[in-house]
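Example record for the data management plan.
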Amino acid sequence: MSKIIDHKSVWYQEVASRDYYNENDLERTIMLNLELIFPEFKVFPFKQDLLNNTTGKINAADLGMVKSDYSEWYVIEVELGKHTKNEVISQIETFRNFTPTRAHSDYINLKRPGVFNLQKLNTLVTNKSPELMLIVNEYKDEWKKDLKRLSCKMCVFQIYTDFKGRRMYRLNGEHPFIFTDFCNCKYEKLLPNTVKILRSDFLEGYGITNGGVFNIEFEGINYLWERYDDGNEVFLICNNSIPPLDPLSSRYRLNYNSSLLKGSKKTYIILNIINWIIKNKTPKKTNSDYSNNHYNNSSRRFKRIF
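Corresponding structural encoding:
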């Protein structure tokens, strides 16, 4: 059994599902915590019968959730790892092959009265197929191939308790992006003016994608940075010949928090002990816009290393 220790040296031990809880217990726990984990979504119980248009089988899911901007929605199945692959995949196939209708959006609305805009909910459900997610209490490698075929995420949700019965939850695997306000990064000393982001989806979650260029203000000076992706690795390259990086430090913590200042929204980035303010992101520039020769030279040197 795995264990977790917190910052107060309190140990938490994983709860063995086969001995201490059943699937309904796991489902209730997930239901109570899912909006905390995914604050961009509204969660609802989804026990409505769904018809597989291919096989004629009928299955009911466990949960569902709708994104607050009505851009996507999920059908969620909660399972224990002790179940067989065939029974799990059979249910997921139904969720992939049913036809969402207004009756489903009406059902969702009744489960969370007053939460949804029914018109927007109807439009979403009847015009966009749901994302699928299987939440399981242990990683099941033998399920992975079939779940991928059905475009279904496998999210691992585990329960831990300490000696006093207080709980801690561990989330792993595939799931919607979780907006957090920090990630770790590393100063790449062998590369010019470069830091490596150790969590690749962190910047993307805030709209900074590959090739994105944006300003960071430090002590009244603007620094131009560009995101550069190399395979699964994500880097930030600084335009300035003397970036605000300490050559004696290699590990940094990158914080990203938004607040309202004097009526305009700004975003703070804190890297180690350096306070940075990201200004409104500038549009991606053409080569003619980069008059700083050092920046052009640095980019070429950087790319040659890979």
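Summary line stored alongside the record: The longest strand covers residues 251-261.
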